[in-house]
Amino acid sequence: MTAFKNGNPIGVGVIGASLGGTWGGVAHLPALLALPQFRATAVSTTRQTSAEATAERFSIPNAFTDPYELAMHPDVDLVTIAVKVPDHDKLIRAALQAGKHVFSEFPLGRTTEEASGLLQAAEAKGVRHFTGLQARANPAFHYVKDLIADGYVGDVLAVHCSYAMPVFPTRSKQINQSRAYLLEEANGANQLTITAGHLLDGITYMFGSFSEISAILETQIKQVKVAETGEVVQATAPDHVVVNGKLAGGTIVSTQIRNTHRGGLSIEINGTEGDLLLQSEENYMFQMDSFVVKGAHADGKTIEWLPVPPQYNLLPAGIQAGPVFNVAGLYTQIYNDLLDSTYNAPDFRTAVDVHKLLDHVRLAAQTGTRLTL
């Protein structure tokens, strides 16, 4: 679009951004407000009152309940889909029908087949498409990737991730009604697709693709009470995920994602010449946390803190760590791609690759075998 070349901000319409703690309201709209190259021009929710409340809170000129009306608005260049996964397909197709660029949260669809269909539809329309694998915008990961390329650890022998989440219903044995859909595997949004999906994408982004994979998927908390109603629902989605394997270059990967009473998230990288350690500061979720980087060379006795150099943070001053930070970084990548016709931000093709990898994880767990990819 030539308007981007003229320095005009890109108009974004966000579908799914009420003020009740939704991801659109918590992360996307604050990120857009902090970036001068974007302008939030429209918002859509399921109720007009909530859409208008969000529009007033964030000074957005247009509020809709009809997502297609949002997508058709002339001030919307890019449509962001920030709703539950089961609704992605119809809303993305509404944006594509309007001929607009699309940014959808991940998982892209409930299944690989659904995600692949959306990729084909977007390619057929000739629009740009992006997906919310925002850990790729984390400055700490770019820094570590450069350290590895520069030989800090030598050849990478092993990557180990210990991922303990305190926010799932292991501790409370209950869940809010708005999140109960996460317990049903058919909805495509759970510990495997969201938590492991983002993590495995980050691992392949930093270290390359898997050549072999094995897995364990378990649903350990099978009955969960809905907080508002007291109804007990049967969980079918996995809540404990173990993925092990080997990367194309020979690196051995081991990851364990489980639910705990106290959170923790660390990624250890072992090489022929030293080690690197990424430790989360928030212990919440891989795709939104900030990380401390530490390293040790061959003597193995001294581990040093490696502050992320300021040149890795391309965001305006004032954007703090938390849900907004990596989302704002991803929007910055999207802006540069739209401006310069580059392809650096993760897109629907990236999402489909992750969906296919998750299919391999499921098959490995179901068969109890180590698969060659």
TrEMBL record:
SUPFAM superfamilies: Glyceraldehyde-3-phosphate dehydrogenase-like, C-terminal domain, NAD(P)-binding Rossmann-fold domains. Residues 139-280 form the Gal80p-like C-terminal domain. It comes from the Bacteria. GO terms for molecular function: nucleotide binding; oxidoreductase activity. Keywords: Oxidoreductase. It holds the Pfam family Gal80p_C-like. Residues 11-131 form the Gfo/Idh/MocA-like oxidoreductase N-terminal domain. InterPro entries: Gal80p-like_C, Gfo/Idh/MocA-like_OxRdtase_N, Gfo/Idh/MocA_oxidrdct_glycsds, NAD(P)-bd_dom_sf. Gene3D superfamilies: Dihydrodipicolinate Reductase, domain 2, NAD(P)-binding Rossmann-like Domain. This is Gfo/Idh/MocA family oxidoreductase.
